[in-house]
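Thread title: Can someone regenerate the structure for this chain?

I was given the following input by a collaborator and told the matching structure tokens would be attached. They weren't. Posting the sequence so someone can regenerate them.
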Amino acid sequence: MNTHSHSANYTVASADIVSEEFDGEFVVLDLSCGKYFSMDEAASAIWRAIVSGVSAQSLAEAAAASGTVSSVSIYEFLEKLVAYGCLVASDNPGSTEIDEATLQKLSASDKPPVVEAFDDLAELILADPIHDVEESAGWPTRKPEAA
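Best answer:
Regenerated them for you:
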């Protein structure tokens, strides 16, 4: 069940949420917990649009017009990202127009946007090898956790 109305807009939840494309795969990383999220092409297009300031409503309207990715699937995808802690609902209206590349990716997709969550590298991602080491033991031994 959605906790936000379909007129809600979204923004990145915190500065700990970063995204990058690696060898053709789009990944969103939550530096606060070490989880990362792999997105297919439609999902990454929606993510990039939201991050750049496109409103959820604009994306849903574009999806409805394209007839491929549904507006419902866009809102479900955005709510999944809220549940994962990547996005939060925002009262700020979107101020950016959807670019042609986003429209093309949405219309080219034959399935709803897909995001997969992973935490298999969380311990490695959370390690800070420069600051979290015991100097007498040398790198890469982590300092004991503070109680």
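The chain has one domain: 9-126.
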